[in-house]
Amino acid sequence: RSWDQFDSLDKHTQWGIDFLERYAKFVKERIEIEQNYAKQLRNLVKKYCPKRSSKDEEPRFTSCIAFFNILNELNDYAGQREVVAEEMAHRVYGELMRYAHDLKTERKMHLQEGRKAQQYLDMCWKQMDNSKKKFERECREAEKAQQSYERLDNDTNATKADVEKAKQQLNLRTHMADENKNEYAAQLQNFNGEQHKHFYVVIPQIYKQLQEMDERRTIKLSECYRGFADSERKVIPIISKCLEGMILAAKSVDERRDSQMVVDSFKSGFEPPGDFPFEDYSQHIYRTVSDGTISASKQEGGKMDSKSTAGKAKGKLWLFGKKPKPQSPPLTPTSLFTSSPPNGSQFLTLSIEPVHYCMNEIKTGKPRIPSFRSLKRGGPALEDFSHLPPEQRRKKLQQRIDELNRGLQKESDQKEALNKMKDVYEKNPQMGDPGSLQPKLAETMNNIDRLRMEIHKNEAWLSEVEGKTGVRGDRRHSSDINHLVTQGRESPEGSYTDDANQEVRGPPQQHGHHSEFDDEFEDDDPLPAIGHCKAIYPFDGHNEGTLAMKEGEVLYIIEEDKGDGWTRARRQNGEEGYVPTTYIDVTLEKNSKGAVTYI
After folding, report:
1. Where is the SH3 domain (predicted)?
2. CA spacing 20 to 30 A to 255: which of 46, 481, 543, 578?
3. pLDDT > 70? residue 343
4. What pLDDT is stored for residue 56 in this prediction?
């Protein structure tokens, strides 16, 4: 019997199908991993890709551009992972699932055929066994009938009728035994034939079919293994290109170009501040008796400055809405000392009128003038970009002029096209009405005129910026030459002007004008100087309450910046006003309250 081997083959084929399904499950999980990997890569790229809402936010640095190119390559790489997943799903997993279903159906059919053949052989064996048992039983009955006949035949007391009856019974059992013998022989021959056929034809054929089925399963697994690897190998060239793109992006990083872009981006065009002049306050304090009294020429110079200051003040509105009276020269550290007494003795005495150093700090309101600091730190942008540094302003104006020129060219092309269309309509009225183009043509002409005006206006601003930049450049080149002259034109009070004729060679003397000083200022006493400053850039001072200054001019600080971008300053001649804090280099005295140095 081969039923045990049949069961073994049944188990083996079932194991083969289970293994096939297990590999299919492995491929499915690998597909899910590839899909999740690709999804996570795409999310990563999306997270770090820039959201370009405007041109200003576009990446400019080569390092940033390289990083964004790497992100694009990584996005393509993620797409290749998706291709791998799709190829595995279609070529491997889907094929495995279909083949597993067909394999189960074929296996079931072969097993059913084997079971049917075994059942038919069992049936033949039962029939043969039944005929055998029947033949055996009939033979025993025939033997019993023969023994009964022989006993009656030898018994002298038995009648002839009994002997005859026993003989007939013997013949009947013998005949039935012969028939069962023939039937048993036929069943035995039939069973032997079916058994031979079963073990040498039917079962080997079923086993061969199961073997072929299992071999096909093995071949299919081999093909799926190859397809699994081919799905990965097909995308290797594209993945290699992605990696090469990343390497090229890394090689494209140019540190010098990035540095130059940073310089161009933040280049302001302002001239660096020059050397701060030395202010010698000691030359009058340590004056010896042999120097004599202050010369009359210096007194006359002081009076001349007072008159010129008063004349300037008359033609200018005062900050507090009150025209100032002619002012006496501001007190300096030398004003604390008086000249020789009437008896002619030459010595210095401490004055009892140190007004600037005895007054309390007077808090006064400042005019409502727009803060220059707020404009530089992101305030409302002006049309001429005057809130920007010169270099940045020049770039912005040049960009605007380029955009306007492009718009002008577009409008000019449109005008030319409309004129051509108008000529065509005039020559061929059936094609259209020339008058219908007149509104559009007029609108285009207006746009052209407007753009030309805008271009002219921006070019004027650009010329102004370029002119100032050229002047600053010339001034920067001559700074070393003028350094000695600048040192020579410093007054004892620290004032400095570009005009040598406006220099004050000595401190103006009060010359006994204390009563006149009180009459001139009345209740508007001047604030004490708490420091000094030097103008880094020139300031026009057109607004009311402001103080014009030249580049390099030294002024007194009488009130600090309160946070609105303006500092109150005073010239040596007594003229006061507000100047932008960002235009000056401030140095406060160490003993002044809240002294802070602004750069």
Report:
1. 528-589
2. 46
3. no
4. 52
**Contact predicate 183/194, CB 8 Å:** no
Rounded CA-CA distance 431/442 in Å is: 21
Torsion of Cα atoms, 496 then 500 then 505 then 508, to 10°: -70
Listed in sequence order, the residues at least 6 apart from 319 whose beta carbon sits closer than 8 Å to its beta carbon are: 367, 544, 545, 576, 577, 578
| DSSP SS3 for 579 | strand
- Are 411 and 454 contacting, i.e. CB atoms less than 8 angstroms apart? no
Q: Which H or E run contains 209?
A: helix 203-234
372-395 average pLDDT score: 64
Looking at every residue in the chain, the average pLDDT score rounds to 75
Cβ 589 vs Cβ 578: under 8 Å: no
Task: Give me the amino acid identity at 342.
Answer: P
Q: Identify whether the C-beta of residue 363 lies closer than 8 Å to the C-beta of residue 421.
A: no
Q: Using alpha carbons, list the distances in angstroms from residue 160 to 147, 170, 505, 584.
A: 17, 15, 192, 168
**Cβ–Cβ < 8 Å for 539, 556:** no
| Positive or negative torsion for Cα 343, 347, 352, 356 | positive
φ and ψ of 315, to 5 deg: -85, 15
Place of tokens 């795409």: 42
CA distances 327 to 303, 309, 539, 547, Å, are 10, 7, 24, 17
Instruction: Please tell me the distance from the alpha carbon of residue 406 to that of residue 556, in angstroms, as a whole number.
Output: 51
Angle at which helices 203-234 and 62-87 pack, to 10 degrees?
170
* Coil vs helix vs strand at 555: strand
Tell me: pLDDT of 22 over 70.
yes
Give the single-character DSSP code of 511: T
DSSP class of 586: E
Q: Which amino acid is at 64?
A: C
Residues 6+ apart with CB under 8 A from 72: 45, 245
pLDDT at 287 over 70: no
Q: Are 577 and 590 in contact (CB under 8 A)?
A: no
End-to-end, the C-alpha distance of the chain in Å comes to 109
By percentage, how much of the chain surpasses pLDDT 70? 69
47/587 Cα distance (integer angstroms):
49
- The most confident of the ranges 23-27, 124-128, 562-566, 591-595 is 23-27
Alpha helices, H only, 296-437: 296-314, 355-358, 372-376, 390-427
What element of type H or E holds 336?
Answer: none
pLDDT at 469: 57
Mean pLDDT of 344-365: 39
pTM for the full predicted model = 0.48
Res. 122: pLDDT tops 80: yes
Instruction: Using the predicted structure, report yes or no on whether residue 427 has a pLDDT greater than 90.
Output: no
Buried b (16+ CB within 10 A) or exposed e, 323-339: ebeebbbbbbbbbbebb
Pairing between β-strand 531-535 and β-strand 349-350 as defined by DSSP bridges? unpaired
Q: Which residues pair with 570 in a beta bridge?
A: 556, 576
Listed residue (120, 169, 118, 113) closest to 146, CA to CA: 169
What is the per-residue pLDDT for 346?
40
